[in-house]
Each structure stands twice: as structure tokens, then as C-alpha cells.
Amino acid sequence: MHDALIFTPDDVDLTRSPLRRGIAEPTYVLGAFNPGFTRLPNGNLLLMVRVAEALREPVRDGHVHAIRWTPEGYVTDAWPLDAVDMTDPRQFEVKGSRHRILALTSLSWLLPVELDPAGERIVAIHYDAAIEPAAGYQCYGVEDARITRIGDTWYMTTCSVGAERHSTTLHSARDGLHYRLDGIVLDHQNKDMILFEGLVGGRFMALTRPLGEVYFAYPPDSPYVGGPSINFAQSPDALHWKPLDAPGLRARKGSQAAMKIGGGTQPVLTRDGWMMIYHGVEARESVGIYRSFWALLDRDDPARILRVEDEVPLLEANPALTARIAHQMYLPTPVVFSTGLVDMGDDYLVASGEADLACRMTRLAKERFA
């Protein structure tokens, strides 16, 4: 296994940030992480990096300030400190509501970073093809791209965050680099929608992970624990999705992923079935410990789960990788969040977000998945 950081907050040129259209206050990159990952037609690789950009001084004059997109440009909103809870460094909660109401201390946009074919060197950073909010349902940002190539089209799902809704949006491209927003495809909170890299029975297939305020209990003797889980959905056109009735992957009691699980890389077809890498979270402090695990799904009926490897992590956070940027760390627990893979012949090259801070590249031998 070979590990390295390929892109960090210091690699982002904020003078070219879309937020310059309206935000005059100094900002910094809270994280450059959780990249969508694919191969381009020219053989190079592409990371679609989530850039979380935050105000240097969000708290001043007795208020905390949040960045928000508008059709006219970017603005900041001021919230009285006594009206919010700032326990989590990534967000604040507005007090006094019967519902949990959040605002973010950063706004995320997506930056295409082109790598050489081996994924070891940055070739170009495409600020001209960056993806930023473009609608009211994205006023607090566009997050966590996942890219899948099917035929001659690249499909990219993103999480769009706004006061109107918290939704999954779809983008598409014919060259893998310049994406068109196709709109909302899941109109509810869903953090980890990923299309399979190929059709199943002539239909698009995807992993989903709906979120809610309440989850119902499994029987006391069940091996599963209630909470966020990975479900499956199918579509005739990648725009209109029907969830499958069969359950998907669920967190198991006693595992290192008992708090919650969610999709990671796009499922790829192997001789044994659809292989996917997913994340599992162990409860610890406010965020939890994130690790990567893997599963194998039947090639003709992906809802039939053939194998789940959730006892020994495939990837764990590696503090040695972030030692040189440790002063920029803000999460209290170790986090690795795998978000894409590319077939390299005898290996898979896996892209991950490390510590919600930087982009990590890991080579894994295919025999590891035998």
C-alpha cells in the first residue's frame, strides 16, 4: 500500500475563489478534501476537490458571521452569539427552534485538479471550471462530489446545502471536466449518493443514504443497529430515481462502524461482483472516528450482498501524512473518508479526504479484495 497527500489547503489560490465576488473580508481554506475522482479522456486523472472556505474572523462585534450565496454575489449574515451554539467548529446551531437549525462557518465550492496518469503529480488546477452555488437550494455551498463514468458521459453527484432544502444534485459532462448542473435528483437529506460504474439490467443504479431525525429500532437480538445506512436506488435516465424495496448495507452491533455507515467510492464491476468501498463511523466525541471498509454485491442483483468486510478497516487515518500541516487540524478525532477510485491494472488508486483537511491518494493491490 502506498499513501500520500496530493492536495492540501495551501495549494488553493484564494485570489481566484468565486467568493471574491462579494466577500471582502479575509478568508482561509478550512479544508481541501473529499474529492470526486475519475480518469479523463487524455489519460490524466481528475480530482474534484471540495474547498471549504471560511472567514478568518467569523466572530466579531458580538456576532458570528456566515457566508451565503445570492444571485447577485456572496454576502455574510450576522447572528448574535447568544442566539447560537458553536460547539462544532464546522457549523453553529441556531437556538430557540423546535427543529435543529444549522448554519455553516464555511462555504464549499468544487475545484477540478488534474493529475498525471499515475496520480502522483498535479498537472493543472482548473479554476475556470470550478463549480459554485448557482441556485437558492445551494446558498450554503456545494459539497462532496462523487464521479462515475458510464459510457461516454461522466455523472457527478453533489450535496447541495441551503435553507430551502438539503438535497442531492446531479451534474454531467462529456469531457469529464466541464460539468453542467442538471438539478435536484433526491429531494431530501442524502449525503452519499453514488452511481454504479455501469448499468444493471439496462438501468442506472446508485447507492443512497437518506437521513432523518428519527430511526426505528431493530429487535434486541438483531445483529444490526438503527441509524444511517446504505440503500439502493435505480433509474431509467439518472434523473428519476426509485428506491429498491430490499434493505442495503446496515451498521452492525459491535463493529467499528456501529455509529453509522455511508457510501464512499463508486461501485466497480469485478469478476466476483460489484466492489465498493464505504465509510463506517465509531462513536467518539462530537464527530466520531471515520474508517474505510469494503463490500461485494451481486453483479445482477446488487441488493444481494455477497460479502461485507467491516471488522478490519481497509483504510484508517494516518497522522504521519498530515504532520506537516498539523497546525491546520480542527477535528478532534481521526477521519479518513474515501470518495473515488480508478483502476490502475494490478491496483486500485483510491482518493480520500484525510482529516477533513486534505486529499489523500492510496494504492491498494487488487488482491486485497480477494
Word description of this protein:
One of its GO terms (molecular function) is hydrolase activity, acting on glycosyl bonds. It comes from Sphingomonas kyungheensis. Keywords: Glycosidase, Glycosyltransferase, Hydrolase, Transferase. This is Glycosidase. The protein is an all-beta fold and 370 residues long. It has a single domain, classed as Tachylectin-2, Chain A (5 Propeller). Helix content is 0%, strand content 47%. It has no helices and 27 strands. The strands form seven sheets. Strands 20, 21, 22, 23 and 24 form a five-stranded antiparallel beta sheet that branches. Strands 1-27-26-25 form a four-stranded antiparallel beta sheet, with no helix packed on it. β12 and β13 form a beta hairpin. The chain is globular and about 60 Å long. The relative contact order is 0.14. The mean pLDDT is 95.
